[in-house]
Protein 1
Amino acid sequence: MNITVLAKFVPNPTGTPELGPDNLLVRTAGDGALDPGDEYGLELALQLAEASGGEVTVVSMGPDEAIAGVQRALAMGAHKAVLVTDPALRGADALVTARVLAAAIARQPADLVIAGAESTDGYTGTVPVTVAELLDMASVTAARKLEADGDGFRVERQTESGYDVLGMPSPALVTVTAGATEPRYPSLKGIMAAKSKPVERLSAADLGVNDLASTQSVAAVTDAPPKAGGEIVSGDEAVARIADLLAEAKVI
Amino acid sequence: MGATWVFAEVTPEGPHPAALELLTKARSIGGDIAAVAFGPGATAAALELGAHGADTVYASDESVFADQPGRAAAHTLHALIGRHAPSLILFAGTYDSRDVAGRLQALTGSTLMANATDVEGPARARTEIFGGTKFVDVDLGGPEPRLVLVRPKSFAAEPTGGTATVVSVDAVVPDSATATVIERHTEAASGPKLEEANVVIAGGRGLGGPEPFAMLDELAAAIGTAAVGASRAAVDAGWVPYSYQVGQTGKTVKPEVYIAAGISGALQHVVGMKGANRIVAINKDADAPILRIADLGVVGDLFQIVPALTEEVRKRANS
């Protein structure tokens, strides 16, 4: 089974985010990472490929430094990668991103496309299904479990009240949530091997995606009214103070 | 300006609460308002959708919408758009509506804004970033209808007492392969629903495992109108089901009182609970970010404080 994994390079998720004068996120060189939310899907892809003797291809769109995220995915075990990097794609909206990713996936059809349920920086959460529709593929989002089942897949999807089990034929697209599996750490051997794995670099024009105009622009950024600092307590009075607050709120 | 539509998720139990919130907001935008409701329960939901401001409800009760989530709804909506040309479609920011909006965007080529917290009209909407410390107003362009996913509980639902005209719609189901629901499982906890509870008690990484959630259950039982929730860290660790999750990827709650126990206060969590009337945070780390947004921050050991609080609540209830 050949699997394509969509991977995003995001600003350091534990850092303090900042906006630049162009109202885009400031990206500091060396301060980004493969989106931790993408590692779950990559791990599932590696397990499925190992079990069936297939290949895992990573597809990523991002700035030049996104190569660091691609290399981490290769070090974890992906076989090869496509990095779409193009200055014209800076600030690309969800539709442009989906068109670029769909074109990159279509160059080398896979049995399964896996993505994270949403990115850690923008958390839009719609790009993968837009890709699925552009490629006329079945999809299941928010999967907490994914298994090969005959010629297709069996997927457990999180719902507001529990979970649903869905079946679908191949080829298909699945987005997975954190917790679907435990991602492996790259081994030293994996890190060394990653350096010689093929990485194809493409521009939007290489993919035939020419309409890159964004349909969204930031009109204004304003500070939310600051919240007044609360009361901090510790020690013996804490329990009584919480109970007082519950009584003031008339909930006890 | 063309009409504003609300994509209303429905079940045989009624419309999703977010649909009523979005219709209330749509009334402030002006113009004709329609709700689009697909799946079993759609026609019956028209009463409540009309009472919240929908002039028209495009409804189909066909089960394909529930059995093949996302795709059939997007294609049917696309056909309806072709006939009626709305300017703006509002969706709730749930997993189900995100799938419909995401697929619809591929069909219409229109803009899609996610995580909106306010909507001015087809050309502008607002979102919040960095845990709600900054507002970002976004100009929307490109072909209509503009698609906007709105965070649940961004607006309070208010009925107008109106009545909607119901227009019956045929499902448009693409021929190509699709995902089909085989089984449904409910993991709902006992007691009030998380989104409706007066008090939410949420546990995080600081609980250290699944067992201490029993302690939160006891406190919830002592209060009576409380529900237990969790941070993503606790859900990802497998300690409680996803239905407990409060935050960006989980539920948005606005209870009278929110008690965060052993939760550090990552932005992803904060956006789901910062609308609570009163926030209490219990954390052993005096530098935990959650303490900065708490009305009452308690620096201490939750394993002592929570059981003691349960005792105190029981004592006050009996006095």
Protein 2
Amino acid sequence: MARKTLLEYSRYPVAFGALFAQIFLIILLFVLTTVAFAGGDQRTISRFAGAMGYGFVVNIILSFTLWEIGFSIREEQVRGTLESLYLSPANKFSNLVSRIFAVLSITVLMCLGGLAVVSAVAGGLPVNNVGLGLLALLLTTSGFLGLGFVFAGITIKLKETAQILVNGLQFFFMIFCAMFYPFLALPSFVVDDISRWIPISYCVDLFRQTLLGQQPELGVSYAVEWVIVLAFGIVSPLVGYWIYHRIERKARTDGTLGEY
Amino acid sequence: MSRGFGLGRPGPRASAGVVWAVFRARLKIITRYKGAVFLESIIPVIFAGLPILLGAAVAGGEQNAANNFFAYTGTTGRTAADFRLYMLMGSNTFMVVTLMLWLIGYWVRREQETGTLEALYLTPAKRFHVLAGVTSYTFIRALIAFLVATVLGALLFNVNPLEGNFLAAVAYLVLGIPALWGISFFFGALVMRIKEANSVIQLLQWVLAFAMGVYFPVTVFPFLLRVVAMGFPPTLMNDAIRSTLLGIASIYGPWYVVLGLMLIAAWLVPLLGYEFFGWTERRVKRDQGVGQF
């Protein structure tokens, strides 16, 4: 399945190249906006560009995980191949995970490129504790897989509307988990009443602050953030797959799997 | 219809019927997805909120952000409310442009995928009337999104767009729509040609965001890039709306120059776009046919 996804990508090279370029443009737009606000203060530009760049890495992994799993299920529905796929003896879990494998590999390249762009525009990025940062990112990605599974299930149930939901949630996370700016940019009541209740906020904060070499912004220690992110990385895929499995089973029992 | 077997050509009434049928069909489909309509009305508000929050955090306060921003961009706005309205209008206009391009490009793609594009080409209806139906629908949808987003944004950001000349701004928006149709025909042609165009359209959306100065005026660009961006109809529309609402100087000059340029764009761009669409269509039909996706 992963090979098939890669093969599909290779059939649309323009789309693939456009995806790369699009990511860079988004970052550039925000970094240039930061430059306009900073009033020429190079230290502020570098600090905010770092927060933005590392937040962007988490954002892009979340976006691709949510979109790729849910959207590829939707495509199978529209093309009419989903039902036949489920009649094959292939493992259902592998079937889901393989959809994201290719895109995650590509995402890594995009992230590196994106960070290079931010670094070039902002005149260098602070980089500390790379190993710990990567571990935090790994756990975060594992947690996002769980969300992706849930959305795969929701796509089977809600069909076209699921995409709107994914879109809406993407924006929700982008804003309230402060992916393109530090948490201090949000009003304190938003951070207290919303951001602190979302595990993804801690993933963003841990990854970003670890690499920036600064204290966590969410008012808890590094140890607490590690526990939350670790729990998210382990529990989320398990719960996510369980939810997906239930929805998929119900759709098969009702005979609605192939409907779109 | 007149004449006989295989020679039938739709008359004016039938053509109007084609436009209405396509328009109604698209509207009917979108009423099934109310969430999509709601989302496209709040996305501009979110897009405007991002730089406002970012600016306040970077500059250490909203007024500081506004001061830095207006000084850096050489714009004449002054207060934090000006700054918020500037961002809101940029985002709203961006949403209108995005919707116009996306809906027409996506319409072509959807017809390809569901296998109805080829069938559409076999009907005696003229392509122009089918496209007129789709573009009318995109116009209504974009206008609704713009107005709803303006109301929501005004409430959320505590700004009053009616303080400026709101009706003139809406008039500029309406006047800018034909040029957007023209660009969207280019997009439709692109989709027909390269097929899996979601990523390309998304990329071009962000190129547009850059070129039309969604977050900052194009005057901050280097000379060549600025000239290219200023020759782009959405930049003109965005600038006209902002300058009318905020009472700031347009980067194109006095109001009659802006109006003249908008009239030229409204006339010229749709013609060029439609020609390009027809040319691409003929090439695709000659090469592999419109049914392939």
